[in-house]
Specification:
Layout: E1 4-8, E2 11-15, H1 23-28, E3 47-51, E4 63-77, E5 83-97, E6 104-107, H2 119-125, E7 132-135, E8 150-152, E9 155-158, E10 168-172, E11 175-179, H3 183-186, E12 191-194, E13 198-201, E14 204-205, H4 207-213, E15 232-238, E16 243-248, H5 263-272, E17 275-280, E18 289-291, E19 294-295, E20 322-325, E21 332-335, H6 348-352, E22 358-361, E23 367-369
Antiparallel strand pairs: 1-2, 3-11, 4-5, 5-16, 6-20, 7-18, 7-20, 8-9, 8-12, 10-11, 10-12, 13-14, 13-17, 15-16, 15-17, 18-19, 21-22, 22-23
């Protein structure tokens, strides 16, 4: 049994091997405590992993999109101090991807981190194009900078120290990962994005503990961010390694007339539909879902700079990162002049030597062979 202590402002905390899931809680003390900490022996307790589901012989993303609808009760206090219970009907979507291998990516706006774009636009620009896309990570509302860990197509865009980080959703080596990672560990991931609050852990509602572990300073909705009703986006996986997404329409997470789900009810809904691990992504006015490049939810943002100055219209908010579900990340052949050539198994050099009249695209959309006089800009809408 390995024990780790930190003394700061007359506060002690203890991390044991059996209680190592509490380590991120202990790490938050580092914000006001200069004492060192030691990682417990069983570092794997900081995260969970699951091999992604396999469906040999299938082609294309095996995607299920179902509409959700439910009544949500809430209590509010009126002017005279009387508590009143109300019930609101809310809607959303449940998405299941049965063959995730090679079909899930973290997509950045065309301008990269530090820029923002509509989920619908980023889903169209990504290669392969997204069949379904959701808003993903948090961002600085002033300058658009990505917040947290960001890895896209094996490129580590940015990392944050473990003591300042939040729970992550990641993919590498045919496995889903959810949990907390050091910058060194992140280097080997294919895709990763940070959320705020681990919602479901090992099939149980983890919101109370997940909130204690979270670095909540990265969100702007205050200390009631988890308990307020709001639009929500969550991602995770089930016991079979299928990817799961729940998106809920509602309101922004602050202000009056709030509607949607709080995090505990969001976690319960995920568990009801089979999730064993899931995290909360950016929500409120950022929550968005696009299918075939078209918005299918009703975003809650109604304020500038995203929306009209009158505040009368709700609109889709530009975001910093998007989770994209697409067909397999094999090189896509775009036929030119009616000619189609298969490049399965070809090396980059072989693909580059294809005769003119054939166009070969990498997953990111770069032209790597047979380009002739066409350019990437000619491919809009392909």
């Amino acid at each position: 049994l390995k024990r780790t202590f930190c003394q700061c402002a007359c506060t002690d905390f203890l991390v044991t091997k059996q209680a190592s899931t509490m380590l991120p809680v202990a790490l938050t003390a580092l914000f006001s405590c200069a004492a060192a900490y030691a990682v417990v022996d069983d570092a794997s307790a900081l995260w969970v992993e699951k091999p992604v589901a396999q469906m040999p012989g299938t082609s294309g993303a095996q995607l299920s999109v179902k509409m959700l609808g439910m009544e949500v009760e809430s209590t509010h206090t009126e002017v005279l101090g009387q508590e009143v219970k109300t019930s609101t009907h809310i809607v959303g979507h449940l998405v299941t991807l049965s063959n995730p291998s090679g079909r899930v990516s973290l997509a950045l706006p065309p301008g990269g981190c530090g820029s923002r774009e509509l989920t619908t636009v980023t889903s169209r620009a990504h290669r392969p194009a997204c069949k379904l896309a959701i808003n993903a990570g948090y961002f600085n509302v002033t300058d658009g900078a990505c917040i947290g860990n960001v890895v896209s197509h094996g490129n580590v865009i940015q990392t944050v120290p473990l003591a300042e980080g939040n729970v992550n959703f990641g993919i590498k080596d045919g496995k889903f990962y959810i949990g907390y990672f050091t910058p060194d560990q992140i280097q080997s991931f294919e895709h990763m994005v940070s959320g705020v609050v681990w919602l479901v852990r090992d099939g149980k509602n983890y919101v109370q503990q997940g909130w204690k572990e979270a670095n909540t300073t990265v969100q702007t909705s205050g200390d009631k961010y988890a308990t307020n009703l709001a639009s929500r986006t969550a991602v995770g996986f089930d016991a079979n390694g299928r990817m799961m997404i729940i998106q809920i329409d509602g309101s922004i997470a602050v202000g009056h007339n709030k509607r949607g789900l709080d995090m505990k009810r969001l976690a319960d809904l995920l568990i009801k539909h089979g999730a064993v691990n899931a995290i909360n992504m950016d929500g409120g006015g950022s929550s968005a879902m696009a299918f075939a490049h078209e918005l299918i939810n009703y975003p809650s943002d109604n304020q500038p700079p995203s929306c009209h100055a009158s505040g009368e219209y709700q609109c889709e908010r530009p975001v910093s990162t998007v989770l994209c579900i697409h067909d397999q990340e094999a090189e896509a052949i775009v036929p030119v002049q009616g000619s189609i050539v298969s490049t399965a198994g070809l090396s980059l050099a072989a693909a580059s030597s294809l005769p003119l009249g054939h166009l070969v695209l990498s997953p990111s959309g770069s032209i790597i062979g047979g380009a002739d006089c066409m350019t990437k800009s000619n491919l809009e809408g392909v």
